[in-house]
């Protein structure tokens, strides 16, 4: 009898630890102008951890907000690569939740980071995966004219590439040659450069288990919003937006997206809301299931609305041009 109890206890212990070992940790990569220390990000990581039962980490690069603006994305990716390799908890594999620009760093970790632990699920919220085009929505204020001039004349200059992180993924459909020649990040990440395509990037990206691409129906920050699904303008024109399946990146499968899609591993999700403005229920429907292996009871926790992770390129550019004394308005969480 005693033996049976001991056995049962051992079994219970074994099952418990086995189930415990099954939960996969996740990292969150924030967007531009944001920081892990801001309450918006802290609440997001906490809520996702609680709902999924998995351990979540906010992975910071440098000092957060400032560095997210000014460090070239290749450098940011290299820092993130070193960090994930050092985090022993991720050794058996982990999931990534990317917000806006953070998605490109996440993809950079998967494609470029030699010897990194395997990424299982990649949940992308409002990622400028196919680039973002400048212009039409900034408006008619003087600052917008200034920004447009910088973006259109100087965005691919070595200087802009060196001091402005977003210059690494601004893709002007009317200057594809300049983009391929001067843009230092996205053409490499998307294997767009004819003689420099690296099959390792493709093979690595194609090896993840699920890719969840969340597009925000009212997104006015990334242009076009369909870039969150890898849709983009055709070379040389600002319309129409090509659905991902009609882009060369997909058709010739430069990064393994088509392979993933044909294996049923890509979910194209369309949610209502502006850039990164995801509701609790959508977060529970589209993010949480990929962070957890078991169906668990979903507690009614409030996902605080976080202006910290609503990272508007445009409003923050105002800050960069000195019209806003600092960037802390991005952290004014309620
Ligand atoms: C952040 O770090 C950079 C160096 O990478 C430094 O130049 C900058 O002043 C720092 N900014 C803040 C707000 O700490
Ligand atoms: C392709 O990328 C891998 C992984 O980063 C690297 O080891 C290799 O040298 C690259 N190949 C070429 C031809 O650049
Ligand atoms: C996204 O959802 C909205 C509302 O349901 C719908 O009107 C729109 O056509 C959808 N967009 C795409 C690209 O599926």
UniProtKB/TrEMBL annotation:
One protein family per Pfam: Palm_thioest
Molecular function terms, GO-annotated: thiolester hydrolase activity
Keyword Hydrolase part of the UniProt annotation: yes
Claim: Flavoprotein is one of the keywords in the record: no
Domain of life: Eukaryota
Signal peptide span: 1-21
Keywords: Hydrolase, Signal
Family annotation (InterPro entries): AB_hydrolase_fold
PANTHER family linked: ALPHA_BETA-HYDROLASES SUPERFAMILY PROTEIN, PALMITOYL-PROTEIN THIOESTERASE/DOLICHYLDIPHOSPHATASE 1
Protein name (database record): Palmitoyl-protein thioesterase 1
């Amino acid at each position: 009898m005693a033996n049976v109890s001991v056995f049962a206890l051992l079994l219970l212990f074994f099952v418990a630890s086995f189930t415990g070992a099954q939960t996969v940790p996740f990292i969150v990569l924030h967007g531009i102008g944001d920081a892990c220390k801001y309450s918006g990000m802290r609440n997001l990581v906490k809520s996702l951890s609680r709902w999924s039962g998995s351990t979540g980490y906010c992975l910071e690069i440098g000092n957060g907000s400032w560095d997210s603006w000014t460090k070239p994305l290749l450098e940011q990716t290299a820092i993130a690569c070193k960090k994930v390799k050092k985090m022993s908890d991720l050794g058996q594999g982990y999931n990534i939740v990317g917000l806006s620009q953070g998605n490109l760093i996440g993809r950079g970790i998967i494609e470029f980071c030699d010897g990194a632990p395997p990424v299982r699920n990649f949940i992308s919220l409002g990622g400028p995966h196919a680039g973002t085009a400048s212009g039409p929505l900034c408006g008619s204020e003087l600052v917008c004219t200034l920004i447009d001039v910088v973006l259109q004349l100087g965005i691919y200059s070595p200087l802009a590439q060196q001091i402005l992180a977003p210059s690494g993924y601004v893709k002007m459909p009317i200057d594809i040659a300049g983009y391929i020649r001067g843009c230092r990040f996205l053409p490499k990440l998307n294997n767009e450069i004819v003689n420099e395509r690296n099959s390792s990037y493709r093979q690595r990206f194609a090896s993840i288990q699920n890719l969840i691409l969340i597009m925000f129906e009212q997104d006015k920050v990334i242009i076009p919003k369909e870039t969150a699904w890898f849709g983009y303008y055709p070379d040389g024109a600002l319309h129409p937006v090509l659905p991902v399946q009609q882009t060369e990146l997909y058709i010739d499968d430069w990064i393994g997206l088509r392979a993933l899609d044909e294996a049923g591993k890509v979910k194209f999700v369309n949610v209502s809301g502006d850039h990164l403005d995801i509701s609790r229920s959508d977060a529970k429907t589209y993010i949480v299931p990929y962070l957890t292996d078991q169906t668990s009871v979903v507690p009614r926790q409030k996902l605080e609305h976080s202006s910290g992770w609503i990272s508007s390129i445009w409003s923050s550019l105002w800050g960069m041009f000195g019209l806003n004394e600092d960037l802390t308005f991005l952290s004014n969480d309620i």
